[in-house]
Structure to design on (223 residues):
């Protein structure tokens, strides 16, 4: 496993502490100290199970049949990290939208819609309007591959905000959404990050390398 603090590969070595039961089941805290000398941070997970395990003396040793396990320290999301190529002004909204997804899909989607709007304005150059109209501009310009254009188009149906002009004028507006809908906006943002930031950066590295070769052999550079 990778330590969620330092992202270095470490051997899982969790200690379990049973903390009690409630109407939802049985609960334990799993802790381990990251062995990386530069990190040395405690990793803490809260887990819920459907049953308990006991030792030969009948004492409770922990939980079984684990149904949920969330990271408490660090608070983290299960989504992949933002690629380093993405500018911080977009990345920070996305990161926070990921963090709060499981606690509040509504708040998450408010942040991720704002992030989407900023990406469309900053990278696709759309004229400021409401998000629904901005999405229409991008689709009309045909600057995106069709699968991406369709994915963005689908966001307009989320929370039905395309049908409510007042709601759609402000992306920070709280709209009723399902978990899966909020997750979908993050999925779309992820593919947009790849399209607008990651792929151009990869191409630039390749182009620079080619131009270096051309320049070394006295040939005209590729524009
Ligand atoms: Zn660590």
């Amino acid at each position: 496993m990778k330590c969620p603090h330092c992202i270095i590969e470490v051997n899982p070595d969790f200690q379990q502490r049973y903390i009690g039961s409630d109407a939802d089941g049985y609960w334990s805290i799993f802790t381990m100290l990251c062995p990386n000398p530069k990190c040395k941070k405690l990793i803490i997970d809260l887990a819920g199970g459907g049953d308990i395990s006991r030792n030969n003396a009948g004492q409770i040793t922990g939980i079984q049949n684990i149904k949920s396990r969330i990271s408490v320290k660090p608070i983290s999301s299960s989504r992949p990290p933002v690629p380093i190529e993405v500018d911080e002004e977009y990345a920070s909204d996305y990161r926070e939208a990921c963090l709060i997804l499981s606690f509040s899909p509504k708040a998450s989607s408010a942040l991720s819609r704002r992030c989407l709007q900023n990406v469309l304005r900053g990278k696709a150059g759309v004229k400021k309007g409401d998000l629904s109209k901005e999405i229409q501009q991008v689709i009309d310009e045909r600057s995106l591959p069709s699968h991406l254009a369709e994915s963005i188009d689908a966001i307009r149906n989320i929370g039905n905000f395309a049908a409510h002009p007042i709601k759609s004028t402000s992306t920070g507006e709280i709209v009723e959404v399902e978990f899966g809908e909020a997750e979908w906006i993050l999925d779309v943002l992820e593919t947009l990050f790849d399209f607008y930031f990651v792929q151009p950066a990869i191409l630039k590295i390749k182009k620079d390398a080619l131009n270096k070769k051309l320049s070394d052999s006295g040939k005209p550079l590729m524009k």
